[in-house]
Amino acid sequence: MLVLATTTPGEPEIFASLQGEGPSIGRSVAFVRLSRCNLACRWCDTPYTWHFSGDNRPHRDGVTHDRAANQLTLSEEEVARRIAAFGKPRLVVTGGEPLLQGKALARMLAHLPDMAVEVETNGTIAPHADLDPLIGQYNVSPKLAHSGNTADLALPPERLAQWAAEPRAIFKFVIAEPADLEEVLALAFRYAIPNQRIWLMAEGTDTVTLATRQRWLAELCLQHDMNLSPRLHIALYGDTRGT
Questions:
Q1: Which end of the chain is more exposed for a tag (fewer CB within 10 A), N or C?
Q2: InterPro entries recorded for this chain (predicted)?
């Protein structure tokens, strides 16, 4: 069984859209959003996947979410059936943190043998052995200090070293201030991550904030030979579920 996020109570967040971030931006894909996360980013744009009633971890909007309305469980076969119905050649698995459910995710993907699969992960968890051969691309997004997570939780050295050595992994860093780049550069140096494998993405959930930050972020990308990732889905649809 897989634990999924919802778009509305009782409706799993399985949908077709354009990939809004990273190297596959603009591609027509299917999405499935899984629930639960082992980190707690204070600016997380999907807190309904983890910030449930009774969870005292901080989030900037101070809102907690009813678990029953925002989380549901479906069989792997049913999830695969719903994904296949969109007829897309590519699937993006996002969250929450999808690798928390690696074994069940592998069972689901076994029903979709012809799909190219991307997994979006915070980089703290190793892929399950059954899952790893089924993944074509890992979008690894280590969380910097401004996320509010401690480095021992968010930046485990063994895991980052393994991701850096994984040719299927790209790195996507959320940037709120120009000074955040110093942390990215330090991580890139420590783990020998080529700058060309790094995407920088402005933190924000509205077009004005994103446009303002992308102006100076673009210059940093040019200076350091890194890639700029817009948030295309925010520009197209706003900060909404199922997009």
A1: N
A2: 7-CO-7-deazaguanine_synth-like, Aldolase_TIM, rSAM, rSAM_sf
Q: Where exactly are the structural domains of the chain?
A: 8-33+76-237
Reduce the DSSP state of residue 237 to 3 states and report it.
Answer: helix
172 is in an annotated binding site: no
Q: What does the block give as tokens for 13?
A: 């967040």
Q: Name the stretches of the chain with pLDDT < 50.
A: none
How many whole angstroms separate alpha carbon 242 and alpha carbon 240? 7
Q: What is the pLDDT of residue 221?
A: 98
96 assigned to a ligand binding site: yes
SS3 assignment, position 107: helix
Whether this prediction's pTM lies above 0.90 is answered by yes
94 is in an annotated binding site: yes
Coil, helix or strand at residue 193: coil
Run of H or E including 82: helix 76-84
Question: Is 43 assigned to a binding site?
Answer: yes
